[in-house]
# Entry
Amino acid sequence: MGVMKEYRVAVVGATGMVGRTFLKVLEEYQLPVKEYVLMASKRSAGSKMTFFGREYEVQELTQTSFDSGFDIALFSAGGSTSAKFAPIAAAKGCVVIDNSSQWRMDPNVPLVVPQVNPQDIAWHNGIIANPNCSTIQAMLPLKALQERYGIKRVVYSTYQAVSGAGRKGWDDLENGVRGFVDGQERPLEKFQHPIFNNCLPHIDVFQENGYTKEETKMIEETRKILGDPQMRVTATTVRVPVFNSHSESINVELEKPFELPELREVLARQDGIVIQDDPAKDVYPLAVNATGHDEVFVGRIRRDESVESGVNLWVVADNIRKGAASNAVQIAQRLIAMWNQQ
Amino acid sequence: MGVMKEYRVAVVGATGMVGRTFLKVLEEYQLPVKEYVLMASKRSAGSKMTFFGREYEVQELTQTSFDSGFDIALFSAGGSTSAKFAPIAAAKGCVVIDNSSQWRMDPNVPLVVPQVNPQDIAWHNGIIANPNCSTIQAMLPLKALQERYGIKRVVYSTYQAVSGAGRKGWDDLENGVRGFVDGQERPLEKFQHPIFNNCLPHIDVFQENGYTKEETKMIEETRKILGDPQMRVTATTVRVPVFNSHSESINVELEKPFELPELREVLARQDGIVIQDDPAKDVYPLAVNATGHDEVFVGRIRRDESVESGVNLWVVADNIRKGAASNAVQIAQRLIAMWNQQ
# Structure
């Protein structure tokens, strides 16, 4: 019964939209941390942020930032920053939990949803990747179904919020809303087409095969997290005029036959899922209700009669919390628990 | 070479949101009509509407409305009105083109998208049904694919506009937009939950099997129009905060193998389709661009590698025009052409 160790944690990219949610979630989760250091690029360094009730000055992220010894660094600063600085931090013995797409498909980097594949945290080599927001929320129901019935094929169609496109994406929707009311058109900052009053089948960049990078991420990350490199998955990812929380229509073909009541039980038992499925009372997952929560909400659970063992699901989660900050903090939480057990 | 016959046409339900679009579309299509009579329920009877540049007084729809001899009646007045008055009109020798769901699945009533199954117009027994909006736009690409490759299975996920829920649905979104800007919350008139800043996986009423009636309509109507009663189809239908034009993510498994360039050609040759598919230039179908048009816009055409012969499509159309009024007027146009050839 020694003294519980307390850790030193860096938050890199603290001033961005997701970074601010990281701070909020860290305040809520109360990890055993003795010191936090907030870091950002030169442009944001020096700015002041309130965190745990006191003022923090954001430090500039440099080659020597991790020399003073950190246990964990939560990175949410974009792919190029992660590419450059995550290996530097890792080389100094700090475990990086990275929210960018930079390391996700690296075979030496585990890609983790703590309720789904916590065992993958153990084999990290200094970097643990946080999956894409639209992938994370799908993993909880799919993992539960995979374990009990096996998965033959998944068809995703997403309804993704603008918060996933950062502050400028949010502003494009808010400016569209205001322009509708006051008649003054504002220029778009982020999207190629108006997002207000529109659905954009275009998230991240297009690739040679006609898929967007977002669609490819969903397909590849699903296979990696569920540990089935050949899993049959396809995706159409769409930005909708919703500020926060992604919704997903997921069609799943299972390997084994199922009874619907048991399948519901299987989903309900999955850690991190809340079932909202009472059509008679107009109860189903909704973006406005998911916002601010860390659970993944699952409803519209019904048999797809067009295949032997098919099921349709409607899955909603806060893409900035469970889809980014909370999932990363939950990884840190499990990592610390692992250390404390050693 | 006789004189081209001119017809007498009734427009029933002229004062509703879709009814007004019927009038607009009729003005554009210039059918060989010698007289239009606008009809509506007692509540709206007596109101004045401008049509073809002159003022029409809306007549009350009664048991004897069709006694004076009509060739065609365009009904857009809801299921119960159609249930009661369509047979009365038909008994008087008038052909009813009905926009409600009342007669669609009646085996004695053809369900028609003119570019898809015009031959079905010929066997009418006095009533021709106009399909559900979300079904109509999917039929054009699916018919083209069915003819060339055969269809094994279809998975629909829809992104449906509030105009499909009528004036009150539109108002719920507009009030939500205004409330966001001025901070004053307005009560909902149509939807069970806020549609502004939200996606509602609930269109029409829920049924015993957990599907909404909208989803069941899409499944059953697809089978009827494509003439394949066993076709494997599933659907998740979702209301999104868009004023007009439905978008659809359609995943199709084909019977035969295909080459993507040829499949694109097959779609492009289909009457009524416009291909918008140039990702490098950010060109894909969008609700804001489809509004006001009668074509069905198809893009994001790409191979689904998760099955042997799969393809993903993004399909957008004006749900009030092609999804309702224009499709019905196009049926009338073909019916008249058929009569003129006899």
Remarks:
- DSSP finds eight helices and 14 strands in chain B.
- The radius of gyration of chain B is 20 Å.
